[in-house]
Amino acid sequence: MITEYQRIRYEFQVYLWKFLRFIKVPLCRGFDDICFNIGEKRRQRTSYVDDELNWCFLCDDCMKGNQEYWDDMWNEYYSQVL
C-alpha cells in the first residue's frame, strides 16, 4: 500500500518533470523510473526497422540499466535460437 508521503513525493516528481520538460531542459527519460539527471540521445542495442526507435534519451546511469536489459534480452534470444 502506498503511503501518503510516497503519493505526494510521486506527484511532485511528475510535476517537476513536466515543468522541466516545458522549459526545455534535456532531462533523462529514465530507464525504469523518473530520472532528473541531464540526458543525451544514445543508441540502444536494438535493431528496429524504424531507426528512430533504436535511439533513446538517457543519462549515464539509466543507459547502463538499459544496456544490461538489452544484453539479457539478446542473450535469452540467442540461447533459444542457436
From the alpha-carbon coordinates, what is the Rg to the nearest angstrom? 16 Å
Tell me what portion of residues adopts beta-strand conformation: 5-15%
Count of strand segments: 2
Structural class assignment: mainly alpha
Please describe what this structure looks like.
This protein is mostly helical and 82 residues long. It has one domain (4-81). Helices cover 50% and strands 10% of the residues. The protein has a two-stranded antiparallel sheet with strand order 1-2. The relative contact order is 0.13.
Question: What's the helix and strand layout?
Answer:
Blueprint: H1 4-22, E1 40-43, E2 55-58, H2 60-81
Summarize the structure.
This protein has helices spanning 4-22, 60-81, and strands spanning 40-43, 55-58. With 82 residues, it is mainly α.
Task: Pick out its properties.
2 helices; mainly alpha; 82 residues
